[in-house]
Design goal:
The chain is 23% helix and 15% strand. It has 327 residues and is an alpha+beta fold. Helix 1 runs antiparallel to helix 2. The protein starts with 9 loop residues before the first helix and ends in a 7-residue tail after the last helix. The structure holds a DNA duplex (14 and 14 nucleotides).
Length: 327
DNA sequence: CACATTTGACCCCA
DNA sequence: TGGGGTCAAATGTG
């Protein structure tokens, strides 16, 4: 199939459309970074250029789309090809059109693509702000502990495709690996960050602070999650640090895990992860046995705000009423 | 009663 | 071909 007017195949057309969309996205990101940098109006020309670039990318994309034929549209929207445009979106379960009973459909599904997945290691089963519903548990070959499967509670009412798997991969100390798939689209989040002082600890020397990880400005939470940061009396050795890593992914915008040395005492960063296609590094700090430990749950923006340590971050939080992070 | 969890069944896909 | 991801009936919980 080849367009008589353009002389290119639908496959090439799809590549062009994706390329234009990615250009547009990159320009928009650049534009956002520019706006966040607080440059003065003397940079207006640069601002104008960026806006123009963004506009051009989307205009090109739209003109490409306006030339496609019905047959090409069918090709582009076929499940195989649309996967190039959408990650984890409205998967066709494959059986909907088939004349099978509900019982016969059992276990019939299209295996989830892992293009938008990342994982986190944590010394405890991580809590995050989203509502998860367990839908399965499997014992895995060569694994001591079963793997638990969770999906977003709003999978059906809001079509949220987020899911996660939790598996204990270590015993002493216990390490839980949480693998996330897809980002939340349900926006079922808490409205404002809060600081919670752990009332269980009456010693007075330990605090638990929890930011409800939601930016009131940008509802950035969907893509965020917690990481663990633990500080002991004499600090953590490298081996003791719970490790959080991130997985691959299609986006070249992925940030590398942050060098722990950028964080000042009294705590060390165990690991960080970022959201594909954004500049966010987010995380949370979890509990420790140390009587002087600082446990903070929430999100940390270490991109352009230049927060060197937790104190500065907390100061920002108390001053502005929301944590210093963004999408 | 509504919603969550458990668990065996089912079958995709590496 | 079987490991692993998902479904859905049964069961639990508040």
């Amino acid at each position: 199939m080849e367009s008589p007017t353009r002389g290119i195949t639908p496959g090439i057309l799809l590549e062009k459309i994706v390329a234009e969309l990615m250009k547009g996205r990159d320009s928009a990101s650049e534009l956002r970074r520019f706006l966040n940098s607080g440059k003065s109006l003397t940079d207006e020309v640069e601002l104008h250029d960026l806006a123009k670039k963004t506009e051009a990318s989307f205009s090109d994309c739209l003109s490409l789309l306006s030339t496609i034929t019905a047959a090409e549209a069918e090709y582009l929207l076929s499940s195989e090809n649309s996967a190039a445009l959408t990650n984890c979106k409205s998967e066709d379960p494959g059986w909907i059109s088939k004349d099978r009973t509900a019982k016969e459909r059992r276990g019939c599904y299209k295996r989830r693509k892992t293009s938008q997945s990342w994982w986190v290691d944590s010394p405890n089963q991580m809590a995050d702000p989203h509502a998860w519903r367990k839908y399965g548990q499997k014992s895995i070959q060569n694994a001591k502990h079963p793997r638990n499967y969770y999906r977003c509670t709003h999978k059906f009412d809001k079509g949220c495709q987020a899911s996660k798997q939790v598996q204990q991969i270590g015993d002493d100390p216990p390490i839980f690996r949480t693998t996330y798939n897809c980002h939340h689209t349900c926006k079922a989040l808490l409205k404002h960050p809060q600081i919670i002082v752990d009332s269980d600890d009456r010693s007075g020397s330990s605090v638990f602070l929890s930011f409800e990880p939601c930016s009131p400005m940008k509802q950035a939470l969907d893509d965020s999650f917690f990481f663990s940061m633990i500080k002991q009396e004499d600090g953590f050795t490298k081996e003791e640090l719970p490790i959080m890593t991130q997985n691959q992914s299609a986006s070249s915008d992925y940030l590398s895990p942050l060098d722990p040395t950028v964080m000042d005492s009294p705590a060390q960063v165990a690991g960080l992860s970022s959201t594909p296609g954004s500049d966010v590094i987010s995380g949370a700090f979890s509990s420790t046995a140390s009587p002087h430990s600082l446990n903070i749950g929430g999100h940390l923006m270490v991109d352009s705000h230049g927060f060197d340590n937790i104190e500065e971050m907390l100061q920002f939080e108390s001053q502005w009423g929301f944590p210093p992070f963004e999408m």
